[in-house]
């Protein structure tokens, strides 16, 4: 697994945890308190919350400290942050959750059951926002992930910790790290594709327009498939936004 700079642990781990939720954060202070508060009740179900901050300039770390089991400082980069969180996790199962994604009510039990039969898996997704095209985008994403076995990070990828380590974790690249992890995990087994839906923010589509965002994402995926480096694509993604 890639080994980014050791983070600074602010809180304590939970040695009794059966699921560690790793949340990469960068300037998510506006909504982070609500997100972590919603997850706090899962502690009774053996869930450990690990927030990995990538150098936020807002109050994200201050907000997370009383609401997470551990808050860890990391070099920026979602893949690096999630790998570092996994290194500090106590539980035998991992869930990688974006800071703007909400879990369904019985998520822990569903993950536990799914990992009893599969090495890894993901949820279906429902994008929330203003655009009337978001239900269409959500349907397309769910269909694509079921047909290809490739999940995106905002679908809530979960995996046995030992399996995650065996495949080397997320590749240390600035974009498409979720696609590459899915490819690695698919070599071991097909994913559990849960029909329960996480709710993820559709702010990208609202801010930049649904169809322009769809075209951008598919163009980036196509070029990645053709062998263009993730570093180059991340540069184009930032420019397009």
TrEMBL record:
InterPro entries: Glyco_trans_2-like, Nucleotide-diphossugar_trans, Trfase_2_rSAM/seldom_assoc. Residues 20-117 form the Glycosyltransferase 2-like domain. Pfam families: Glycos_transf_2. Gene3D superfamilies: Spore Coat Polysaccharide Biosynthesis Protein SpsA, Chain A. Keywords: Cell membrane, Glycosyltransferase, Membrane, Transferase. It comes from the Bacteria. It is found in: Cell membrane. This is TIGR04283 family arsenosugar biosynthesis glycosyltransferase. It comes from Vreelandella janggokensis.
């Amino acid at each position: 697994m890639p080994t980014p700079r050791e983070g600074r642990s602010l809180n304590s781990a939970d040695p009794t945890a059966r699921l560690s939720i790793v949340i990469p954060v960068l300037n998510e202070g506006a909504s982070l308190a609500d997100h972590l508060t919603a997850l706090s009740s899962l502690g009774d179900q053996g869930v450990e919350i690990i927030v990995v901050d990538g150098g936020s300039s807002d109050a994200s770390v201050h907000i997370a400290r009383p609401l997470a089991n551990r808050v860890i400082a990391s070099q920026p980069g979602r893949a690096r942050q999630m790998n570092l969180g996994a290194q500090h996790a106590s539980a035998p199962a991992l869930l990688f959750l974006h800071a703007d994604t909400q879990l369904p009510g019985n998520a822990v039990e569903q993950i536990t059951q799914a990992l009893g039969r599969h090495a890894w898996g993901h949820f279906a997704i429902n994008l929330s926002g203003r655009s009337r095209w978001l239900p269409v985008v959500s349907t397309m994403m769910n269909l694509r992930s079921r047909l290809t076995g490739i999940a995106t990070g905002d679908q809530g990828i979960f995996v046995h910790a030992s399996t995650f380590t065996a495949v080397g974790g997320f590749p240390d690249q600035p974009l498409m790290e979720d696609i590459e992890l899915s490819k690695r995990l698919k070599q071991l087994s097909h994913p559990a594709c849960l029909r329960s839906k996480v709710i993820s923010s559709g702010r990208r589509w609202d801010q930049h327009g649904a169809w322009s965002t769809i075209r951008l994402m598919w163009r980036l995926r196509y070029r990645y498939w053709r062998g263009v480096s993730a570093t180059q694509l991340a540069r184009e993604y930032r420019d397009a936004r």
